[in-house]
């Protein structure tokens, strides 16, 4: 019996390279003769383009060519394939032609010999704008006084349910009803590596493009659609990727334009955006305004919940316009609420388009229901932990279907909450809080809770979400894994090798994991929605086992034995005849005469639903409004954990990102639609200085949906932590009459909330 490496904290095999020679990113690709593409972007939020004059730019040093939207006429719109519900009249051209709809929208390119020549020449492109009114506010957009797409007949990109059909008597009989409009603010994904592309058009008429992405196959499909070519004519290669967080799925108009330039000029073309471009050009996340209404009895039983969402899709509907579907699906969270309804409207505004960002739609659902629970508890005068416990669904192991059609695979929400409360020392924290309140301390203590359940590995594929993997054993005793997932920090190289090693007995350092080349791996779902382990990892396990079946047959031939009599021992890496260990053949030898590989497709019966509970502790200075996060204690149950070190790393990153939304981050626009947070001087993101050391408690409730028992962990931290941190800050001031503070809880907002509640006492002098 060999000892299992699954469930052990194998150190990331990726890291020696990253920590020594460093990664090889798209912008590191050296292609002789490559020209540089510089995008000229709209400097105004909404205008008709009278003309774009590139003549002066063409005279500038190093300029090879300049193109405008007119040159690209005839190419399809850049709208990625979207569910039919999204208004099809709202597609984005690759370069704006008639109208620009956000600051940062690409409208021309200057192509130069050297990168920095493009920056200078770009300034010489003369754009004559006929200004149109900006539409920055979502409610303003919904009112459609200024229509951004006349052909679409309004600013509504999609509706989910009918706001006119809300149940009139939903809250009848409730002793306590609270309603509030809250904001889940717009944030920037801000990965360390910005967007980039390098493209070469080959003599064979095929395009090869290196692009940082979350799934080369999806990127190929999106690019082919934008360029109006067959996917076979494109090869996408994924170099190392410096973070993506949902925003590098598929491809953007810029990527397509770089490919187009390479083909048009017959020269390799490259582009890497600046940080400033990234903050206004890459899709943003979240951007929902939510009206929550919750009602129930004075003793804390929730009877009804309503969620009304206004989603800002930005200038062109992309995945952001679809996010409310996921928010609605997860609206009631882990609670048993007898009557619940949710509706949403996605509108277009003159701002950067909104896309997926870590959690994509689910953090918004959790934030809404968790704030609702707190408001309800406060109104009823009850402990928020007690109210949650009363309303959580009881533990279940058979799938549970919610009123919104989500099929939760397995869950034990109350245990997660109790574990988190115990780990945090909840009773002691409340005592400390009571003391500080009684003493009238300037710095007050707040405790924030959140219970969550989220969906991972969703997929619309017929027959259930799926992923493929190929495992090959080589005669020299090494193995290669090809995967349809696409890691960019998640550690698949380590874990996929662990899974194969466990089955095949091949040492980890002899296993190579490959992904991100569409010629090598034409199919794959990429990495997002925390799907990879439960589908891609399960496919590796399946391919490994299937490979042993093939090998068993070959071993039987070799040993002249019955296949059923053979035993494979991963410890020795050999097949042997049961009871006769001398009659054995090592696995690699079976690859000598004929290649030994298997491609397997794993299909899951459906998505899985990880869950957990977070407790955040914050200190808030009641004189300055400054909030400091002191502790974050979490239980994040992702089923069976295959590599605790990596799963913890994912939780850490997710918690930090979630806390950052509660504390710091926000993309801000002025009334004219100018982004005010377009550099890291203005857009704060979280560093180790703003967060405490996280306290992670363990809990594993396996799923039956895959043989690993694993659910996703990649986004859980983000989903649970945001409302817990936000609520901790509010809770610190609850005794002063503060019930809600929108995110980010900046000192200014906190101070204003205190003044509005009449609470802190002295006005600063
Ligand atoms: N894992 C495990 N046991 C489990 C679940 C996961 O050991 N029960 C391990 C997996 O083997 C994998 C890692 O944890 O090594 C994450 O697995 P999984 O939850 O399947 O998520 P994905 O690999 O599909 O990652 C996607 C997720 C998403 S959606 C975003 S957004 C995100 C995230 O991962 N973006 C990231 N984490 C990120 N981490 C980094 N460094 N950079 C990003 O851009």
Report what the structure shows.
Helices cover 27% and strands 24% of the residues. Mean pLDDT is 96; it is low at 761-765. It is built from 17 helices and 28 strands. The strands form seven sheets. The protein has a seven-stranded mixed β-sheet with strand order 3-5-1-12-9-10-11, with helices on both faces. A five-stranded mixed β-sheet has the order 7-15-14-13-8. It is an alpha+beta fold and 765 residues long. A hairpin with a 4-residue loop joins β22 (566-569) and β23 (574-577). α5 crosses α6 and α15 packs across α16 (716-732). It binds pterin cytosine dinucleotide. The site of pterin cytosine dinucleotide (MCN) has 35 residues, from α13, α14 and α15.
Write the layout of secondary structure elements.
Elements: H1 15-19, E1 35-41, E2 47-53, H2 55-59, E3 63-68, E4 99-100, E5 106-112, H3 115-122, E6 126-131, H4 138-143, E7 156-160, E8 176-187, E9 196-201, E10 207-210, H5 216-227, E11 234-237, H6 253-265, E12 269-272, H7 275-281, E13 285-296, E14 302-312, H8 319-329, E15 339-347, H9 362-380, H10 384-391, E16 400-401, E17 407-408, H11 413-424, H12 426-439, E18 443-453, E19 466-473, E20 479-483, H13 492-504, E21 511-514, H14 532-559, E22 566-569, E23 574-577, E24 580-586, E25 596-603, E26 611-621, E27 627-637, H15 644-663, E28 695-697, H16 716-732, H17 747-757
Parallel strand pairs: 1-12, 10-11, 14-15, 20-21, 27-28
Antiparallel strand pairs: 1-5, 2-4, 2-6, 3-5, 7-15, 8-13, 9-10, 9-12, 13-14, 16-17, 18-26, 19-20, 19-25, 22-23, 23-24, 26-27
Helix pairs in contact: 5-6, 8-9, 9-16, 13-14, 15-16
